[in-house]
Amino acid sequence: MMQSYTVTILPSGIKFTVEPLETIVEAALRQNIDYPYSCLQGTCTSCICKLRCGRVSYGDLPYIFTDEEKKSGLTYACIAYPLSDLEIEITYQDSE
């Protein structure tokens, strides 16, 4: 059975729920949480976060990070589906 998971954004401590078949960014936007994104396809890098705790899946997509990036915990939140509760760290960039 599919289940929902809780995502905690660090360092702010904001928490939100991700429903089954929903990406991290989709869930954040549905709940009016300010989350950086642009393309929603995993190409622009706007949504990259650091996975501090938990696991995600990219579904049928091939893994898009180098081995070094995987070890550092980089995650594309717009195409990542939680497999557990998560703690992610986001660095908000100043918009021009």
TrEMBL record:
<keyword id="KW-0830">Ubiquinone</keyword>
<dbReference type="InterPro" id="IPR006058">
    <property type="entry name" value="2Fe2S_fd_BS"/>
</dbReference>
<keyword id="KW-0813">Transport</keyword>
<dbReference type="InterPro" id="IPR012675">
    <property type="entry name" value="Beta-grasp_dom_sf"/>
</dbReference>
<comment type="similarity">
    <text>Belongs to the 2Fe2S plant-type ferredoxin family.</text>
</comment>
<dbReference type="Pfam" id="PF00111">
    <property type="entry name" value="Fer2"/>
</dbReference>
<keyword id="KW-0001">2Fe-2S</keyword>
<keyword id="KW-0411">Iron-sulfur</keyword>
<protein>
    <submittedName>
        <fullName>2Fe-2S iron-sulfur cluster-binding protein</fullName>
    </submittedName>
</protein>
<keyword id="KW-0408">Iron</keyword>
<feature type="domain" description="2Fe-2S ferredoxin-type">
    <location>
        <begin position="5"/>
        <end position="94"/>
    </location>
</feature>
<keyword id="KW-0479">Metal-binding</keyword>
<keyword id="KW-0249">Electron transport</keyword>
<dbReference type="InterPro" id="IPR001041">
    <property type="entry name" value="2Fe-2S_ferredoxin-type"/>
</dbReference>
<dbReference type="InterPro" id="IPR036010">
    <property type="entry name" value="2Fe-2S_ferredoxin-like_sf"/>
</dbReference>
